């Protein structure tokens, strides 16, 4: 009987393996094809990817930084407050905290971490989550190239359910691999830290360290680094300012991760986990920091330069070097605050129970606030909102609302109506102060008001006011140029000058008296005798005065009227300081300047600035005017007591006080061999002022700012400010300056104007 051989059973296993392998290869091929399709945006299904040029030059908005002459950061211009740092500036504890929490295999993967992705995929399958799978490189790709923004998600499938997130992730994978191919690990990490938004308008680690802890990133302690690393999970939810408990919990999670991966011992963790977060929180903005008025005025110049040269001030990371000295700026701001706080107390007491806005007869101006508020943005917005309906406008102008107001004792939270708020602020005196190096025109200090946050108007360059007797040196300069000299004598008698309309101009002296005594020109300017100024302008002509002032840098409109001799036309403090610098700089006017150079973000010099100069005066004329100005700080001069006794200044100083009609404007201009400065004090409106010369004169309201500032400058030995005498001219003078050497003095001019004893309107009331 034949035996039957059974067929061997077929093994299924190889087929399963083969099938799985085929599926894997097919899936891999499809995945590769999918990745390729996304990378080329096949049939516009997926939206664009950043092009290679963007990859080679990834760009994020960088703050432009303003530096002082002594290399201190004055402030920034930004849309996003971002200051880049280098990898070398990272503290080691921050790098460890970041890797332990966000990407422990950062140094090992090539942009995509398979282990992390597998963990996430497994978590999804079993319905749990054990952290995200994104690497630091993927997070950089997402933020740097805005892979989830509308610009790169304009494909057909982007709006289809289930596709959007997958496409986002795919683009981030692609860009991560490209980033890893193009940059080192250190470059990738520092790029990410420089672009991340930490909240509170802090973009990048350096800005975050400054905002939350008031220090540079390189100085962060480990617990502070842990707080900032915690913000990568959610800047709002874990904000140490607004959610301190959440932040503390997240900080401890970061610290525990550092223990887990050997960057910290358990004992170190135990010593830190219960400690509170200590913040030095300050959001950077234009209202705070040194020289805010200067920074705003500088931005006007810089914006114009950027437009003309193709740069973005708020995004290109420019490095701008200024002439401001941070030490002098600090002393100027201190001098202003100390003086104005005391004068404001006097002003409040002086007007107690009354409003300070008065007309020339001393009566309160009716409807002053109602008219003033119509010039505000609030009124204009209400007017548009209610289409001019006055009842509705008035309702909101008188409605009390919560607001923060300025006082010299600090900001106060109050319930106040907009009209009452305006009334509050109109009671404050304002000021401007500027100091400049006369030889270079470099502005060293600039204070445009009493508080930038609440009073934005700049009183150095933006505002122009009547200079009073501080304008007289231009008249005396014209006299010197036309043959007069410091020892020339003129009688103190009333002078009347006919005007074109048939009337006469007959100015009074400050005390409304004429002594009939002889004054040398030097003493007349030192004591600010109006009759002598009237005599000179009558002899020289107002046109000559206009030309002299313009030649010395006064840019505001000047009318060729005799009253110009007493400073009735508006000028800026900026122009006045520049003009007085001409006297010290041997007759050469140097345009006041505040930017020395601009560099790009890499430190390449884009532009170096050279100030404009004009040979305005002869060296002899300039020196004689310095000699004349010195008399103000000598016995009998208007600045003698304040500078010599109150401030204890013993070195050679020249100066001039000024007080305008009704004491609306108080001025002081001061010169030393290496520093020219000016101060102005007054109300925002000319109708707001003191009512007496004792309180409203220039040597009471303005000069102490200058004296206090100079005192602080000389006390700082790091500044090396000279107290040397003014340098002599290079050639001998053609006239004698020692008036005692003339025989019995000089003859009084015999052709003075006839006297017209009509009652004149006072033009200038300068202080003695």
From TrEMBL:
Short name of one Pfam family for this protein? Answer: Transgly
Give the source species: Pontibacter lucknowensis
All residue ranges annotated as the Glycosyl transferase family domain in the record: 72-258
Annotated Gene Ontology cellular component terms: outer membrane-bounded periplasmic space; plasma membrane
| Pathway(s) where this gene product acts | Cell wall biogenesis; peptidoglycan biosynthesis
Q: What is this protein called?
A: Penicillin-binding protein 1A
GO molecular function list = penicillin binding; peptidoglycan glycosyltransferase activity; serine-type D-Ala-D-Ala carboxypeptidase activity
InterPro entries the record matches: Beta-lactam/transpept-like, Glyco_trans_51, Glycosyltr_51/Transpeptidase, Lysozyme-like_dom_sf, PBP_transglycosylase, PCN-bd_Tpept
Q: Which residues form the Penicillin-binding protein transpeptidase domain?
A: 432-674
Q: Which reaction does it catalyse?
A: Preferential cleavage: (Ac)2-L-Lys-D-Ala-|-D-Ala. Also transpeptidation of peptidyl-alanyl moieties that are N-acyl substituents of D-alanine; [GlcNAc-(1->4)-Mur2Ac(oyl-L-Ala-gamma-D-Glu-L-Lys-D-Ala-D-Ala)](n)-di-trans,octa-cis-undecaprenyl diphosphate + beta-D-GlcNAc-(1->4)-Mur2Ac(oyl-L-Ala-gamma-D-Glu-L-Lys-D-Ala-D-Ala)-di-trans,octa-cis-undecaprenyl diphosphate = [GlcNAc-(1->4)-Mur2Ac(oyl-L-Ala-gamma-D-Glu-L-Lys-D-Ala-D-Ala)](n+1)-di-trans,octa-cis-undecaprenyl diphosphate + di-trans,octa-cis-undecaprenyl diphosphate + H(+)
Ranked from the top, the taxonomy reads: Bacteria, Pseudomonadati, Bacteroidota, Cytophagia, Cytophagales
> What is the superkingdom listed in this entry's lineage?
Bacteria
Gene Ontology BP terms: cell wall organization; peptidoglycan biosynthetic process; proteolysis; regulation of cell shape
- Provide the alphabetized UniProt keywords: Carboxypeptidase, Cell membrane, Cell shape, Cell wall biogenesis/degradation, Glycosyltransferase, Hydrolase, Membrane, Multifunctional enzyme, Peptidoglycan synthesis, Protease, Transferase, Transmembrane, Transmembrane helix
Q: What is its main location?
A: membrane
Q: Which residues cross the membrane?
A: 12-36
Q: Which family does it belong to?
A: In the C-terminal section; belongs to the transpeptidase family.
The cellular location(s) given in this protein's UniProt record come to: Cell membrane
